[in-house]
Amino acid sequence: MGVQRGKKVGDLIRKRLEIYRRSGREAEVVELCERCEQAIQEKFPEIIEEFRGIADGSGVSYNELRNFAFQDSAYKYETGSAVECSSFAATKEATADGHPIITKNADLAPRMSADDTVIVYAKPHGRNRYIAVSAWPEWVAGPDGMNEKGLALAGSGVNPIDADEALSQDSRIGIPLYFLQSVIYSNCGDVNEAVEYLKLTPKGCGYGRNLNLVDMKGNLLKAEISYNKVNFLWPYQSASHPTNGFFAGTGHFCSKDMNKLGPSPEKYSGSYRRFDRLMSLLSRSAGSIDFDLARAIMKDHSNGPSDASICRHSSVTNTLGSMVMQPAYLRTWILKGRPCENSYEPFDL
Do 24 and 173 sit in the same domain of this protein? Predict the structure, then answer.
């Protein structure tokens, strides 16, 4: 599976590797990447096998590809970085037909291109088929996608402030969340099964994450993940009101337990403004959220169009892609570029 991918996107991988070589980072991360590789090999050797296949298929050195792909676990990023995405998930009483829906706008720095986006159709032998989307062609799977059982994941990055402690304690040594998701797609049938894998984080997460999960049964979960902590948010046990049936995520943690571990409103006002806008739109539409509304929300320009709008336009960050997933129909709608300028195309499992 990795070899096929490497052959198809080899040009993209080689282009990105050349940029990495010029950055001079590789010498700094070799030891860390070797230790992360060992941790992954012990639990999920299929991840390493797929990386080797991607390297072989694209005609690049496995060690160089590994170091490039794993490098996020080696760095502390500046808190308040404005490249994180926007996402939401809704289910049951909150949606028009009672079926779950989950969305994401992928926001990246202007140096990235929508043409770097890779859509992965994966058919692991004896396991779940899945479709995943990524702006990192060198990674296994992708950070957002859905499998044939109707389990769908989409999230937003968070720059956690507990990075110093994590880096000093080497708690970053482990299985990066973005790679672990390929295992979740391949092996899990619902949200509850995925939770058991997510408990392996945050070690090796490399970066914080607001991760929304839904499944065909209508289960909904939001996982807030920093370097040293993971917090699961579930809808109220007695949820029967539409406003209990959705979660949203941008570039900060929202729960009382986790908010202090992410950027403050002063550090990253755009994230808080996008989140407030998402929650306002979802709250007023609770009970009637559907595909058409999801499309409208993801191209919303309140607070802009700017870095603070859901559809982002700025010199710092742009929306370079978007997706809407409907697990009950095993359908993923994918758009390259900004939602206000382009149309979604359907991809079925």
Answer: no
Residues 172 and 164 sit within 8 Å (Cβ to Cβ): no
269-275, long-range: CB within 8 Å, 24+ apart, which pairs?
Answer: 269/308, 270/82, 270/303, 270/306, 270/307, 270/308, 271/82, 271/84, 273/303, 273/308, 274/86, 274/250, 274/303, 274/308, 274/309, 274/310, 275/248, 275/249, 275/250
| 324 bridge partner residues | 103, 333
Domain final residue, candidates 32, 54, 74: 74
80 assigned to some structural domain = no
* CA–CA separation, 165 and 5 (whole Å): 36
* Other C-beta atoms lying within 10 Å of the C-beta of residue 269: 16
Distance CA 41, CA 63 (A): 14
The single-letter code of the amino acid at 190 is D
Rounded to 5°, the CA angle 327-331-332 comes to 100
Number of domains in the chain: 2
Residues 13-42: tens digit of each pLDDT: 998 888 777 776 666 678 778 888 888 899
CB neighbours of 224 closer than 8 A, spacing ≥ 6? 158, 208, 209, 210, 211, 230, 231, 233, 253, 254, 255, 258
CB 311 within 8 Å of CB 262: no
Q: What is the pLDDT of residues 237-287, one digit of tens each?
A: 665 678 889 999 999 999 998 999 888 898 889 999 999 999 999 999 999
109 and 129: one domain?
yes
Rounded CA-CA distance 103/212 in Å is 9
pLDDT, average across residues 79-93: 80
What is the rounded distance in angstroms from the CA atom of residue 305 to the CA atom of residue 301? 5
Instruction: Report the predicted TM-score, pTM, of the whole model to 2 decimal places.
Output: 0.92
Query: 235 and 190, same structural domain?
Result: yes
In sequence order, the 6+-apart residues with CB closer than 8 A to the CB of 244 are: 93, 94, 235, 236
* CA-to-CA separations, 271 to 61, 80, 251, 309, 342, in angstroms, rounded: 38, 9, 5, 9, 24
Regarding whether 218 and 180 lie in a shared domain, the answer is yes
Q: Phi, psi (5° rounding) for residue 138?
A: -85, -10
| Domain interval for residue 251 | 86-348
